Amino acid sequence: MLLAVASCTNIDLYEKTAAIPGQKWSSSFKPSFTFAITDTSALYQVWFVFRHTEKYNFNNIYINLRAQVPGQDTSLQIRQDVKLATDDRGWLATGMDDIYEHREPLGPAQTFKAGEYTFTLEQIMREDPLNHVLDAGIRIEKQ
């Protein structure tokens, strides 16, 4: 029975966040995360991890995710509008006191080729720096 439960759970491959200096995410601060993929037959889900206080002024965040793929000289760039709140439900996150954490998927699960990847996050909001942001990061989850 334990084997059946273990085989149904997702296996985390990588999760890391970067603390935002002074809780003000400047567009010049671009945290990078490096990890290696060895299983090329599995599907992987990429998640955006974002922590902020209740004073965060927006119900979304625009980000650029840059991916340096093994064997390529240029990086891929994905622009994403991540919804963080709605008028009906409020924050779409888990929260404790006045701190909220979002884990939002960035596209569908996909396969990766073997090698070392570097993902870089950049906030591209009109407000710069973006206030009341604690951490930003990525999670790579093997499906």
Mind explaining what this structure looks like?
- The structure is a single chain.
- By secondary structure, this protein is mainly β.
- The protein has one domain (12-142): Galactose-binding domain-like (Jelly Rolls, Sandwich).
- It contains 1 helix and 13 strands.
- It has one helix at 2-8; strands at residues 11-19, 24-25, 32-37, 44-53, 60-68, 76-83, 85-86, 90-91, 94-96, 99-105, 115-123, 130-131, 133-142.
- The strands form 4 sheets. A 5-stranded antiparallel sheet has the order 1-13-4-10-9, with no helix packed on it. It has a 4-stranded antiparallel sheet with strand order 3-11-5-6, with no helix packed on it. Strands 2-12 form a two-stranded antiparallel ribbon.
- Strand 5 and strand 6 form a beta hairpin.
- The longest helix has 7 residues, at 2-8.
- The protein is globular.
- Residues 1-11 have low confidence and may be disordered.
What descriptive keywords fit this protein?
143 residues; mainly beta; Jelly Rolls; five-stranded antiparallel sheet; globular; disordered N terminus
TL;DR?
The protein has 143 residues and is mainly beta. The chain has one domain (12-142): Galactose-binding domain-like (Jelly Rolls, Sandwich). It has one helix and 13 strands, in the order H-E-E-E-E-E-E-E-E-E-E-E-E-E.
Blueprint of the fold:
Elements lengths: L1 H7 L2 E9 L4 E2 L6 E6 L6 E10 L6 E9 L7 E8 L1 E2 L3 E2 L2 E3 L2 E7 L9 E9 L6 E2 L1 E10 L1
Antiparallel strand pairs: 1-13, 2-12, 3-11, 4-10, 4-13, 5-6, 5-11, 7-8, 9-10
Radius of gyration: 16 Å
Mean pLDDT: 90
Gross morphology is globular
The CATH fourth-level homologous superfamily:
Galactose-binding domain-like
- How many strands, what sense, and barrel or not for the largest sheet? 5 strands, antiparallel
- What name does CATH use for the topology? Jelly Rolls
CATH class: Mainly Beta
